[in-house]
Specification:
Layout lengths: L26 H10 L3 E8 L5 E10 L6 E11 L2 H9 L7 H24 L9 E12 L11 E5 L2 H8 L3 E3 L2 H6 L9 H8 L6 E6 L2 E7 L9 E7 L2 H10 L11 H5 L4 H8 L2 H4 L8 H4 L1 H13 L4 H24 L7 E5 L6 H10 L4 E4 L10 H14 L7 H4 L9 E3 L2 H11 L1
Parallel strand pairs: 1-4, 4-6, 7-10, 10-11
Antiparallel strand pairs: 1-2, 2-3, 4-5, 6-12, 7-8, 8-9
Helix pairs in contact: 3-4, 7-12, 7-13, 9-13, 13-14
Protein backbone atom coordinates (compact mmCIF):
# COMPACT_ATOMS: atom_id res chain seq x y z
CA UNK A 1 0.00 0.00 0.00
CA UNK A 2 1.30 3.45 -0.86
CA UNK A 3 2.12 5.78 2.00
CA UNK A 4 0.48 8.69 0.21
CA UNK A 5 -2.72 10.03 1.79
CA UNK A 6 -4.02 11.36 -1.53
CA UNK A 7 -7.33 9.76 -2.54
CA UNK A 8 -7.05 7.44 -5.49
CA UNK A 9 -9.53 7.62 -8.35
CA UNK A 10 -9.87 5.79 -11.64
CA UNK A 11 -10.13 7.92 -14.81
CA UNK A 12 -13.78 6.99 -15.15
CA UNK A 13 -14.74 8.36 -11.74
CA UNK A 14 -12.45 11.44 -11.67
CA UNK A 15 -14.45 14.62 -10.99
CA UNK A 16 -14.41 16.90 -14.07
CA UNK A 17 -13.23 20.47 -13.81
CA UNK A 18 -15.85 21.79 -16.22
CA UNK A 19 -19.64 21.29 -16.37
CA UNK A 20 -20.67 18.00 -17.93
CA UNK A 21 -23.54 17.13 -20.20
CA UNK A 22 -26.81 16.33 -18.48
CA UNK A 23 -28.49 17.74 -15.42
CA UNK A 24 -27.74 17.38 -11.78
CA UNK A 25 -30.20 17.77 -8.95
CA UNK A 26 -28.72 19.54 -5.95
CA UNK A 27 -30.57 17.49 -3.34
CA UNK A 28 -29.90 19.79 -0.36
CA UNK A 29 -31.13 22.68 -2.50
CA UNK A 30 -34.20 20.68 -3.57
CA UNK A 31 -35.29 20.19 0.02
CA UNK A 32 -34.23 23.60 1.32
CA UNK A 33 -36.12 25.33 -1.49
CA UNK A 34 -39.24 23.39 -0.68
CA UNK A 35 -38.95 24.06 3.06
CA UNK A 36 -38.41 27.79 2.46
CA UNK A 37 -41.75 28.19 0.69
CA UNK A 38 -44.39 29.90 2.78
CA UNK A 39 -47.13 28.20 0.76
CA UNK A 40 -46.58 25.03 -1.30
CA UNK A 41 -48.77 23.82 -4.13
CA UNK A 42 -49.08 20.05 -3.90
CA UNK A 43 -51.08 17.64 -6.05
CA UNK A 44 -52.31 14.54 -4.24
CA UNK A 45 -53.22 11.45 -6.29
CA UNK A 46 -54.90 8.18 -5.38
CA UNK A 47 -56.73 5.28 -6.96
CA UNK A 48 -58.63 3.55 -4.16
CA UNK A 49 -59.42 -0.08 -3.50
CA UNK A 50 -62.55 0.25 -5.64
CA UNK A 51 -60.23 0.93 -8.60
CA UNK A 52 -62.81 3.16 -10.26
CA UNK A 53 -60.48 5.98 -11.30
CA UNK A 54 -57.90 8.54 -10.25
CA UNK A 55 -58.74 11.17 -7.66
CA UNK A 56 -56.54 14.27 -7.86
CA UNK A 57 -56.52 17.34 -5.62
CA UNK A 58 -54.42 20.49 -5.97
CA UNK A 59 -53.81 21.79 -2.46
CA UNK A 60 -52.15 24.84 -0.98
CA UNK A 61 -50.20 23.62 2.05
CA UNK A 62 -48.39 25.66 4.66
CA UNK A 63 -46.68 24.67 7.87
CA UNK A 64 -45.95 21.15 9.03
CA UNK A 65 -47.16 18.70 11.64
CA UNK A 66 -49.70 20.24 14.00
CA UNK A 67 -49.30 23.65 12.33
CA UNK A 68 -50.29 22.36 8.88
CA UNK A 69 -52.92 24.45 7.08
CA UNK A 70 -54.51 23.44 3.79
CA UNK A 71 -56.80 24.82 1.12
CA UNK A 72 -58.15 22.73 -1.75
CA UNK A 73 -57.73 24.78 -4.94
CA UNK A 74 -59.23 22.24 -7.33
CA UNK A 75 -59.87 18.55 -7.77
CA UNK A 76 -60.96 16.05 -10.39
CA UNK A 77 -61.93 12.41 -10.67
CA UNK A 78 -60.99 10.64 -13.89
CA UNK A 79 -63.02 7.45 -14.23
CA UNK A 80 -61.23 4.47 -15.75
CA UNK A 81 -62.71 3.17 -18.95
CA UNK A 82 -64.00 -0.41 -18.89
CA UNK A 83 -60.90 -1.90 -20.53
CA UNK A 84 -58.45 -0.25 -18.14
CA UNK A 85 -60.51 -1.16 -15.07
CA UNK A 86 -60.72 -4.77 -16.26
CA UNK A 87 -56.94 -4.80 -16.74
CA UNK A 88 -56.45 -3.55 -13.16
CA UNK A 89 -58.81 -6.19 -11.78
CA UNK A 90 -56.84 -8.90 -13.59
CA UNK A 91 -53.89 -7.95 -11.38
CA UNK A 92 -55.82 -9.15 -8.33
CA UNK A 93 -55.97 -12.74 -9.63
CA UNK A 94 -53.56 -15.18 -7.91
CA UNK A 95 -52.28 -16.43 -11.27
CA UNK A 96 -51.59 -12.97 -12.75
CA UNK A 97 -48.13 -13.02 -14.40
CA UNK A 98 -45.40 -10.66 -13.18
CA UNK A 99 -45.12 -9.26 -16.71
CA UNK A 100 -48.67 -7.90 -16.48
CA UNK A 101 -47.96 -6.24 -13.13
CA UNK A 102 -44.81 -4.72 -14.64
CA UNK A 103 -46.68 -3.36 -17.66
CA UNK A 104 -49.55 -1.95 -15.64
CA UNK A 105 -47.16 -0.28 -13.21
CA UNK A 106 -45.94 1.92 -16.05
CA UNK A 107 -49.36 2.24 -17.69
CA UNK A 108 -50.90 3.59 -14.49
CA UNK A 109 -47.93 5.90 -14.07
CA UNK A 110 -48.96 7.46 -17.38
CA UNK A 111 -52.59 7.72 -16.23
CA UNK A 112 -51.62 9.38 -12.95
CA UNK A 113 -49.26 11.78 -14.71
CA UNK A 114 -52.00 12.75 -17.17
CA UNK A 115 -54.45 13.44 -14.35
CA UNK A 116 -51.91 15.62 -12.53
CA UNK A 117 -51.08 17.56 -15.69
CA UNK A 118 -54.74 18.09 -16.53
CA UNK A 119 -55.54 19.38 -13.04
CA UNK A 120 -52.48 21.63 -13.00
CA UNK A 121 -53.44 22.97 -16.42
CA UNK A 122 -56.72 24.21 -14.98
CA UNK A 123 -54.93 26.15 -12.24
CA UNK A 124 -51.80 27.81 -13.60
CA UNK A 125 -49.83 24.92 -15.09
CA UNK A 126 -47.21 22.45 -13.87
CA UNK A 127 -44.62 25.20 -13.42
CA UNK A 128 -46.68 26.36 -10.41
CA UNK A 129 -46.71 22.91 -8.74
CA UNK A 130 -44.07 22.23 -6.10
CA UNK A 131 -44.78 18.54 -5.45
CA UNK A 132 -46.89 15.58 -6.53
CA UNK A 133 -47.81 13.02 -3.84
CA UNK A 134 -49.10 9.76 -5.30
CA UNK A 135 -50.54 6.87 -3.32
CA UNK A 136 -50.83 4.72 -6.44
CA UNK A 137 -53.08 1.69 -6.83
CA UNK A 138 -52.92 -1.07 -4.24
CA UNK A 139 -52.86 -4.47 -5.89
CA UNK A 140 -51.85 -6.60 -2.91
CA UNK A 141 -51.78 -5.85 0.82
CA UNK A 142 -50.49 -8.58 3.15
CA UNK A 143 -49.19 -6.94 6.34
CA UNK A 144 -50.23 -9.88 8.53
CA UNK A 145 -48.90 -12.61 6.22
CA UNK A 146 -45.46 -12.89 7.75
CA UNK A 147 -42.84 -15.54 7.17
CA UNK A 148 -39.10 -16.12 7.42
CA UNK A 149 -38.78 -14.49 4.00
CA UNK A 150 -41.10 -11.54 4.80
CA UNK A 151 -40.92 -11.01 8.58
CA UNK A 152 -42.66 -7.62 8.27
CA UNK A 153 -45.42 -8.73 5.90
CA UNK A 154 -45.73 -7.13 2.49
CA UNK A 155 -47.70 -4.59 0.47
CA UNK A 156 -47.59 -3.47 -3.17
CA UNK A 157 -48.86 -0.30 -4.82
CA UNK A 158 -48.27 0.50 -8.50
CA UNK A 159 -48.39 3.60 -10.71
CA UNK A 160 -44.69 4.18 -11.37
CA UNK A 161 -43.58 7.49 -9.75
CA UNK A 162 -40.59 7.81 -12.10
CA UNK A 163 -43.05 8.00 -14.99
CA UNK A 164 -45.05 10.71 -13.20
CA UNK A 165 -41.86 12.70 -12.54
CA UNK A 166 -40.68 12.34 -16.14
CA UNK A 167 -43.98 13.34 -17.72
CA UNK A 168 -44.60 16.31 -15.39
CA UNK A 169 -41.09 17.39 -14.44
CA UNK A 170 -42.30 17.78 -10.84
CA UNK A 171 -40.78 16.04 -7.80
CA UNK A 172 -42.89 13.05 -6.74
CA UNK A 173 -43.36 11.38 -3.36
CA UNK A 174 -44.93 7.94 -3.68
CA UNK A 175 -45.12 4.44 -2.20
CA UNK A 176 -46.26 5.65 1.22
CA UNK A 177 -47.22 2.33 2.82
CA UNK A 178 -44.00 0.35 2.62
CA UNK A 179 -42.07 2.30 5.26
CA UNK A 180 -44.65 1.51 7.91
CA UNK A 181 -44.93 -2.15 6.90
CA UNK A 182 -41.14 -2.49 6.99
CA UNK A 183 -41.28 -1.17 10.58
CA UNK A 184 -43.73 -3.91 11.50
CA UNK A 185 -46.91 -1.87 11.01
CA UNK A 186 -50.10 -2.52 9.11
CA UNK A 187 -49.31 0.22 6.56
CA UNK A 188 -52.86 1.54 6.94
CA UNK A 189 -54.95 3.51 7.51
CA UNK A 190 -52.55 6.23 6.38
CA UNK A 191 -55.21 8.93 6.39
CA UNK A 192 -55.13 9.11 10.21
CA UNK A 193 -52.38 11.74 10.24
CA UNK A 194 -54.38 13.97 7.87
CA UNK A 195 -57.56 13.36 9.88
CA UNK A 196 -55.74 14.60 12.98
CA UNK A 197 -54.50 17.67 11.11
CA UNK A 198 -57.92 18.49 9.66
CA UNK A 199 -60.52 17.46 12.22
CA UNK A 200 -59.17 17.40 15.78
CA UNK A 201 -61.14 19.57 18.21
CA UNK A 202 -60.36 20.88 21.67
CA UNK A 203 -63.72 19.84 23.13
CA UNK A 204 -65.40 17.29 20.85
CA UNK A 205 -64.61 13.65 20.30
CA UNK A 206 -64.81 12.80 16.59
CA UNK A 207 -64.69 9.71 14.43
CA UNK A 208 -63.72 10.18 10.80
CA UNK A 209 -65.27 7.27 8.90
CA UNK A 210 -64.10 6.60 5.37
CA UNK A 211 -66.37 4.50 3.16
CA UNK A 212 -64.17 3.77 0.18
CA UNK A 213 -63.64 0.25 -1.09
CA UNK A 214 -62.67 -0.60 2.49
CA UNK A 215 -64.13 1.15 5.53
CA UNK A 216 -61.76 2.73 8.04
CA UNK A 217 -62.15 4.95 11.06
CA UNK A 218 -59.93 7.49 12.80
CA UNK A 219 -60.90 8.28 16.37
CA UNK A 220 -59.87 11.72 17.66
CA UNK A 221 -60.62 12.17 21.35
CA UNK A 222 -61.10 15.74 22.60
CA UNK A 223 -57.83 17.73 22.44
CA UNK A 224 -56.12 14.73 20.82
CA UNK A 225 -52.36 14.59 20.50
CA UNK A 226 -50.83 12.29 17.90
CA UNK A 227 -50.32 9.51 20.45
CA UNK A 228 -54.00 9.65 21.41
CA UNK A 229 -55.22 8.83 17.90
CA UNK A 230 -56.38 5.34 16.96
CA UNK A 231 -57.40 4.25 13.49
CA UNK A 232 -58.14 0.94 11.84
CA UNK A 233 -60.12 -0.67 9.05
CA UNK A 234 -63.67 -1.43 10.13
CA UNK A 235 -64.37 -3.91 7.33
CA UNK A 236 -65.87 -3.51 3.85
CA UNK A 237 -66.88 -0.11 2.56
CA UNK A 238 -68.22 -0.26 -0.99
CA UNK A 239 -66.13 -3.20 -2.18
CA UNK A 240 -68.54 -6.02 -1.43
CA UNK A 241 -71.60 -3.95 -2.38
CA UNK A 242 -70.05 -3.06 -5.75
CA UNK A 243 -69.09 -6.66 -6.46
CA UNK A 244 -72.57 -8.07 -5.85
CA UNK A 245 -74.25 -5.21 -7.74
CA UNK A 246 -72.06 -5.89 -10.76
CA UNK A 247 -72.81 -9.62 -10.53
CA UNK A 248 -76.59 -9.40 -10.09
CA UNK A 249 -76.89 -6.74 -12.83
CA UNK A 250 -74.89 -8.81 -15.30
CA UNK A 251 -72.28 -6.05 -15.49
CA UNK A 252 -74.79 -3.33 -16.34
CA UNK A 253 -74.04 -1.52 -13.06
CA UNK A 254 -70.77 -1.08 -11.18
CA UNK A 255 -72.32 0.29 -7.97
CA UNK A 256 -75.66 0.82 -6.26
CA UNK A 257 -76.60 4.35 -7.34
CA UNK A 258 -77.84 6.27 -4.28
CA UNK A 259 -78.45 2.93 -2.56
CA UNK A 260 -81.66 2.39 -4.54
CA UNK A 261 -81.32 -1.39 -4.94
CA UNK A 262 -80.62 -1.88 -1.25
CA UNK A 263 -83.59 0.30 -0.32
CA UNK A 264 -85.91 -2.01 -2.31
CA UNK A 265 -84.53 -5.19 -0.75
CA UNK A 266 -84.85 -6.97 2.59
CA UNK A 267 -81.81 -7.80 4.72
CA UNK A 268 -81.36 -11.53 5.29
CA UNK A 269 -80.60 -11.81 9.01
CA UNK A 270 -78.99 -15.26 8.73
CA UNK A 271 -76.59 -14.19 6.00
CA UNK A 272 -75.76 -10.96 7.84
CA UNK A 273 -74.95 -12.97 10.95
CA UNK A 274 -72.67 -15.23 8.90
CA UNK A 275 -70.87 -12.22 7.41
CA UNK A 276 -70.35 -10.70 10.84
CA UNK A 277 -68.54 -13.86 11.95
CA UNK A 278 -65.60 -12.80 9.74
CA UNK A 279 -62.26 -13.32 11.43
CA UNK A 280 -61.30 -9.79 10.44
CA UNK A 281 -64.40 -8.23 11.99
CA UNK A 282 -63.75 -10.01 15.28
CA UNK A 283 -60.03 -9.13 15.40
CA UNK A 284 -58.82 -6.29 17.60
CA UNK A 285 -56.97 -3.27 16.15
CA UNK A 286 -54.49 -2.50 14.77
CA UNK A 287 -55.85 -4.13 11.65
CA UNK A 288 -56.15 -3.38 7.97
CA UNK A 289 -58.01 -5.14 5.19
CA UNK A 290 -58.14 -5.39 1.42
CA UNK A 291 -59.46 -7.50 -1.42
CA UNK A 292 -57.97 -10.53 0.27
CA UNK A 293 -60.71 -10.29 2.94
CA UNK A 294 -63.65 -8.58 1.21
CA UNK A 295 -63.09 -8.94 -2.53
CA UNK A 296 -64.14 -11.39 -5.20
CA UNK A 297 -63.80 -14.50 -3.05
CA UNK A 298 -66.25 -13.32 -0.38
CA UNK A 299 -68.61 -11.89 -3.01
CA UNK A 300 -68.77 -15.25 -4.78
CA UNK A 301 -69.49 -17.10 -1.53
CA UNK A 302 -72.17 -14.59 -0.52
CA UNK A 303 -73.86 -14.86 -3.92
CA UNK A 304 -73.82 -18.67 -3.75
CA UNK A 305 -75.38 -18.77 -0.29
CA UNK A 306 -77.92 -16.08 -1.20
CA UNK A 307 -79.11 -17.91 -4.31
CA UNK A 308 -79.52 -21.15 -2.37
CA UNK A 309 -81.78 -19.21 -0.01
CA UNK A 310 -83.77 -17.81 -2.93
CA UNK A 311 -82.89 -14.16 -2.32
CA UNK A 312 -83.69 -11.56 -4.94
CA UNK A 313 -81.01 -9.29 -6.40
CA UNK A 314 -82.27 -6.45 -4.22
CA UNK A 315 -82.14 -8.63 -1.10
CA UNK A 316 -78.52 -9.57 -1.80
CA UNK A 317 -77.48 -5.92 -2.26
CA UNK A 318 -79.41 -4.95 0.89
CA UNK A 319 -77.62 -7.65 2.90
CA UNK A 320 -74.19 -6.57 1.62
CA UNK A 321 -75.05 -2.94 2.46
CA UNK A 322 -76.22 -3.91 5.94
CA UNK A 323 -72.92 -5.74 6.45
CA UNK A 324 -70.96 -2.52 5.86
CA UNK A 325 -73.28 -0.54 8.18
CA UNK A 326 -73.22 -3.16 10.93
CA UNK A 327 -69.44 -3.65 10.72
CA UNK A 328 -68.97 0.10 11.25
CA UNK A 329 -71.32 0.18 14.24
CA UNK A 330 -69.82 -2.98 15.72
CA UNK A 331 -66.30 -1.52 15.49
CA UNK A 332 -67.45 1.62 17.29
CA UNK A 333 -69.19 -0.31 20.05
CA UNK A 334 -66.24 -2.59 20.75
CA UNK A 335 -63.15 -0.54 19.95
CA UNK A 336 -63.98 3.20 19.81
CA UNK A 337 -66.54 4.02 22.50
CA UNK A 338 -64.51 2.33 25.27
CA UNK A 339 -61.74 4.83 24.45
CA UNK A 340 -63.71 7.93 25.35
CA UNK A 341 -66.25 10.48 24.32
CA UNK A 342 -67.66 10.49 20.79
CA UNK A 343 -69.81 13.44 19.71
CA UNK A 344 -69.58 13.50 15.92
CA UNK A 345 -69.05 11.04 13.08
CA UNK A 346 -67.70 12.49 9.81
CA UNK A 347 -68.46 10.34 6.76
CA UNK A 348 -66.33 10.40 3.63
CA UNK A 349 -65.57 8.32 0.56
CA UNK A 350 -67.97 7.15 -2.12
CA UNK A 351 -70.18 5.36 0.39
CA UNK A 352 -71.07 8.67 2.02
CA UNK A 353 -73.19 9.35 -1.10
CA UNK A 354 -75.09 6.06 -0.80
CA UNK A 355 -78.27 7.33 0.89
CA UNK A 356 -79.31 3.88 2.14
CA UNK A 357 -75.91 3.04 3.59
CA UNK A 358 -75.70 6.42 5.31
CA UNK A 359 -79.20 6.04 6.79
CA UNK A 360 -78.45 2.55 8.09
CA UNK A 361 -75.23 3.76 9.72
CA UNK A 362 -77.07 6.67 11.34
CA UNK A 363 -79.72 4.27 12.70
CA UNK A 364 -77.00 2.26 14.42
CA UNK A 365 -75.08 5.24 15.85
CA UNK A 366 -77.73 6.71 18.10
CA UNK A 367 -76.87 9.87 20.01
CA UNK A 368 -74.12 10.91 17.61
CA UNK A 369 -74.24 13.70 15.06
CA UNK A 370 -73.42 12.38 11.57
CA UNK A 371 -71.72 14.88 9.26
CA UNK A 372 -69.91 14.89 5.90
CA UNK A 373 -66.57 16.33 4.82
CA UNK A 374 -68.46 19.07 3.01
CA UNK A 375 -69.67 20.34 6.39
CA UNK A 376 -66.03 21.29 7.02
CA UNK A 377 -65.48 22.91 3.64
CA UNK A 378 -63.69 19.85 2.20
CA UNK A 379 -65.04 18.28 -1.01
CA UNK A 380 -65.68 14.67 -0.13
CA UNK A 381 -64.27 13.34 -3.41
CA UNK A 382 -61.03 15.26 -2.76
CA UNK A 383 -60.42 14.09 0.82
CA UNK A 384 -58.17 11.07 0.19
CA UNK A 385 -56.08 12.93 -2.38
CA UNK A 386 -55.85 15.81 0.11
CA UNK A 387 -54.58 13.37 2.75
CA UNK A 388 -51.70 12.28 0.53
CA UNK A 389 -50.84 15.89 -0.30
CA UNK A 390 -50.43 16.39 3.45
CA UNK A 391 -48.29 13.25 3.79
CA UNK A 392 -46.17 14.29 0.81
CA UNK A 393 -45.53 17.65 2.46
CA UNK A 394 -44.33 15.87 5.62
CA UNK A 395 -42.00 13.65 3.59
CA UNK A 396 -40.38 16.59 1.78
CA UNK A 397 -39.78 18.28 5.14
CA UNK A 398 -38.07 15.15 6.49
CA UNK A 399 -40.77 14.38 9.02
CA UNK A 400 -41.82 10.85 9.99
CA UNK A 401 -45.61 10.78 9.63
CA UNK A 402 -46.11 7.13 10.56
CA UNK A 403 -48.31 6.59 13.61
CA UNK A 404 -47.45 3.51 15.72
CA UNK A 405 -50.61 3.99 17.81
CA UNK A 406 -52.56 3.39 14.58
CA UNK A 407 -50.55 0.79 12.68
CA UNK A 408 -48.66 -1.07 15.41
CA UNK A 409 -45.26 -0.21 13.91
CA UNK A 410 -42.16 -0.29 16.13
CA UNK A 411 -41.48 3.40 15.53
CA UNK A 412 -42.86 6.36 13.54
CA UNK A 413 -41.97 5.49 9.96
CA UNK A 414 -40.85 7.84 7.21
CA UNK A 415 -43.58 7.52 4.60
CA UNK A 416 -42.86 7.86 0.90
CA UNK A 417 -40.03 7.60 -1.62
CA UNK A 418 -38.91 10.77 -3.39
CA UNK A 419 -38.20 11.08 -7.13
CA UNK A 420 -36.78 14.50 -8.15
CA UNK A 421 -38.32 16.21 -11.17
CA UNK A 422 -36.42 17.65 -14.10
CA UNK A 423 -37.95 21.09 -13.67
CA UNK A 424 -35.92 21.46 -10.47
CA UNK A 425 -32.84 20.02 -12.16
CA UNK A 426 -33.18 22.54 -15.00
CA UNK A 427 -33.66 25.39 -12.52
CA UNK A 428 -30.60 24.29 -10.61
CA UNK A 429 -28.52 24.28 -13.81
CA UNK A 430 -29.84 27.68 -14.84
CA UNK A 431 -28.95 29.07 -11.42
CA UNK A 432 -25.45 27.68 -11.73
CA UNK A 433 -24.89 29.36 -15.08
Amino acid sequence: MSGSSRPRCSPTCRAPAAPTEGWRVDLPQLFSRYASLTTRRVIGLISGTSADGVHAALVEVSGEGASTCTRVIGFLHETYDAALRAAIFRLFAPDCPASEVCRMNFALGEVFASAAARLAGQHGGLDTVDLIASHGQTICHLPRHRSAETPAGATLQIGEPAVIAERTGVAVVADFRVGDVAAGGQGAPLSAFADWVLFRDAEKGRAVQNLGGIGNVTYLPPAAGLRDVIAFDTGPGNMLIDAVVEAVSGGALTHDIDGRMAARGAVDAELLSWLMQSEFIRARPPKTAGREEFGAGLAAELLGRARKRGLSAEDIVATATAFTAESVADAYRRFVLPRGRLDEVILGGGGAYNATLRAWIEERLTGMRVLAHEDFGIPGHAKEALAFAILGNEAMLGRAAGMPSVTGARRPAFLGKIVPGWRVARAAQDDAT
